[in-house]
Design goal:
The chain is of the alpha+beta class and 71 residues long. The chain has helices spanning 10-17, 21-30, 46-57, 63-70; strands at residues 7-8, 35-38, 41-45.
Length: 71
């Protein structure tokens, strides 16, 4: 079986996003990233990392920015 998508360990995913591994674990715990288990080990699909990037960049409204802009 050949995979057309990359799988990253938590440290590798953190490196790709320039975040700490603890942040990746937190995102997994909150359900913001979906984990893939292979032989009992946790991996993150490349497509999951892309979803996180798109969701963050294209968010419609950021309440913190709105409040600051209103001041």
């Amino acid at each position: 079986m050949v995979f057309s998508e990359k799988f990253y360990t938590v440290p590798e995913a953190a490196e790709q996003l320039r975040l700490s591994p603890w942040t990746i674990w937190d995102l997994l715990k909150r359900g913001d990233l979906v984990r893939t288990k292979i032989a009992g080990k946790t991996f993150v699909r490349e497509s999951e990392l892309q979803k996180l990037i798109v969701d963050t960049v294209n968010s419609v409204s950021n309440p913190r920015r709105s409040r600051k802009a209103a001041r």
